[in-house]
Amino acid sequence: MDHSYEAWQEVLAEEFFGRQHAGHPTLFYVDDDVEQELRHGCVIEEPLAQCVGRFLRLGTAEPYSALEGYRWRKRQQDKEGVPAFLPLLACSVMAASRMVNDRNHRATAYHARFSELLTGDEKQLGSQHYEPISRMWQVLASWQFSQRGARGLCTVPAPADLPSNRSMIGFAQSQALVSGADRSFMPKLFRSLREYGTTWPLPGETLLAQIEIRGMGQHFSKGFRNAVQEEDLRPFLARLIGNYATSWDGSDELVPTGVTRAELLVRLDAGRLSWVARLRSAEQKKRIELKGGVVLEQLGDTAYYEVTGLPALSADTLARGIRRDGDNLVLSRPASSVLVLARDDVLGVWAGTDGFRPGEAHVVLAAPTAQRDVQRLLDKAATTGRSADTSKLAWVPHGWSMHKPVTFDDAVTLRRALQEVQGAVGLLQPPAQFKLRLEGGLKLAPSLDSHLYLCGGEPHVVVPDAVECTGTLLVDGRERSELRKAIAAGRPVSLAVLRLEPGRHTVGYAGVEIDFVTADQAVVEPKMPKVCGFTVVDGKASESPSLLVEETLPTGITGAHRAGATTQDVTAGMELCRRDADEVLFAAADGRLWTLEAPEQPDWWTERLPGTPAPLRFEADFHGIGGWLLERRSGRWRGRPVNPGTPTPKSAGNPRAWARAVLNAQQASTEPSWAAYVQAAKELDR
């Protein structure tokens, strides 16, 4: 891929999935105007569609294979980064934004517009070529869910939400339905409806109906109005506007993009309801002060915060909603008439959740205005907890009803019931599943292999949502009758019931396979509390070994002592480098700079040790040279000294490149030796 494609990937990733979107519903909205604004604002010479079109392999069965290959190469470098096919998906949204009746096409003719946009010919790319793009949308949505809101709340519909005739193009269409102007008008619409009724939030279908009844469609874009009238588009337009309603906190505007939104949740602990905040931002401070004397104190090393200074939790505060502003941060909770609590793995107690979790227990609290809708849902779909708990508990908000424990063993029945039942409870859809994955289980030595489990503690398999359940779940290549009931109910499937033998196993569904390993035990090399080796002073090793303390360990020489070696000969050092690092550099004291590549795994490794996981680190030897070893992982640099000595970068190598590398990684260490390197780089960079 050339520079322009990489530039478009970086611009789109930052614009639509950057850290500034933490806690906000995000639409990947790209039309011709947005494309021009991004191109001119970021000084990209080549138009987006022209750039993507150059890498299509037209006339082949897989025209997008070059773009998919690039995405996999980028994923090897950064597993947590935004999937690197955003330019192609942006073009698919641009094509959807052009779907209007004209002299050449009907409004429903998507593929002709997509092909014309990328190739100039409306017949080069047809519907038979589009399936890989629909899979890319599902990969993007699954990645965004995995970030837990730190890169924005996902608005891509689940496959089950799409009508069969839009099962592929519906992902792109969903992002082109609500423009920026539409989103800016939503708070006014929500405030008008909130003042009219007492139950909030309203489901998306009810919101659309109110827009039509009140004649407010004139305030929305033409594309939005057309989608409301189209039978196939209306359901996931309703889902989109419903998502925005649940995140609206009652203020005159949605929380502006770039302002971190901390969610105010309800916690049930020791018979008492209290407030707790969840901050989705990557940068989490220990203490945050907001206006009105509200203080957030971080709970350990988690994304949760203890909240003080707010009004006591009651029926009134739940019904009105809460918002407090701070320095580039908003703590808010929208008004709600239904409260659902589930066990939180991090807090270890009951806490508010965004949706029902099939197979798990819940506590459901409902305001008087929502009690009828809650009862209808439980009667239709709940396995337990249908009857309200009539015991008088002091922590239950005044006038509210309580059901516990509420479980839904059949996720398919639950989804259908939620679509039929009106009111705020209809928004509590189970989390969407976009791809086959493993969850839970008892892991053995994650440092050796993240997919190594204890025999009898095998994980659950989560099957992706689909329009219809036509796939077959295969374990080690064959269908297992013990799992059919759970698959049909749409629940996570427990593999522990199969009593699998120790060894490597494969789970497959709809052409996708996942491997994992089970074992009775794992040998984990213990951390040595004491290390013996040779101390190094001014680049020379000591004549005899000694116990290395914390101050001398980073520069000491450890390992077996070779007989006959003199003190002057011991100038080689060995360091372990991470294979999963995005970049590994060695900045030598004399100004030379190397990029260290992880060596390929030798052929004999898998032949002789087929059940051994790949090593996490590789060795790097340094002979007669000193400097700093630098590793970049998840955007952060870390450094270790290797006989660093005094930096003299003007004596050899490429001093300018050396200086840039050192300055880019200047936060890698706080040691005085590294500070000397940074100072030398600054002097070169003047």
Derived structural class: alpha+beta
- Total count of strands: 32
Q: Number of helical segments?
A: 19
Helix content: 25-40%
What is the mean predicted local confidence, pLDDT? 83
Cα distance spanning the termini: 33 Å
Rg from alpha-carbon coordinates: 29 Å
Biggest β-sheet description: 11 strands, mixed
Structure, explained:
With 686 residues, this protein is of the alpha+beta class. It is 29% helix and 21% strand. Strands 3, 4, 5, 6, 7, 8, 9, 10, 11, 12 and 13 form an eleven-stranded mixed sheet that branches. Strands 15-21-20-17-18 form a five-stranded mixed sheet, with no helix packed on it. A four-stranded antiparallel sheet has the order 29-28-31-32, with helices on one face. The longest helix is centred in the N-terminal third of the chain and has 17 residues, at 180-196. The two termini are 33 Å apart. Mean pLDDT is 83; it is low at 560-570.
Brief description of this entry?
By secondary structure, this protein is of the alpha+beta class.
Structural key phrases:
686 residues, 29% helix, globular, five-stranded mixed sheet, 32 strands, 19 helices, alpha+beta
Give the topology, please.
Elements: H1 3-17, E1 25-26, H2 32-41, H3 48-53, H4 65-77, H5 86-97, H6 110-119, H7 131-146, E2 153-154, H8 170-175, H9 180-196, H10 204-213, H11 222-229, H12 234-247, E3 260-269, E4 272-279, E5 287-289, E6 295-298, E7 304-308, H13 315-320, E8 322-326, E9 329-333, E10 338-343, E11 350-352, E12 362-366, H14 371-381, E13 401-406, H15 411-420, E14 437-439, E15 452-454, E16 460-462, E17 474-475, E18 478-479, H16 484-489, E19 493-494, E20 503-509, E21 512-519, E22 531-534, E23 536-537, E24 540-541, E25 546-548, E26 557-558, E27 572-578, E28 583-588, E29 593-595, H17 603-608, E30 617-623, E31 627-633, E32 636-642, H18 655-664, H19 672-685
Parallel strand pairs: 1-2, 3-9, 15-21
Antiparallel strand pairs: 3-4, 3-11, 4-7, 5-6, 6-7, 8-9, 10-11, 10-12, 12-13, 14-16, 16-19, 17-18, 17-20, 20-21, 22-25, 22-26, 23-24, 27-30, 28-29, 28-31, 31-32
Helix pairs in contact: 5-6, 10-12, 18-19
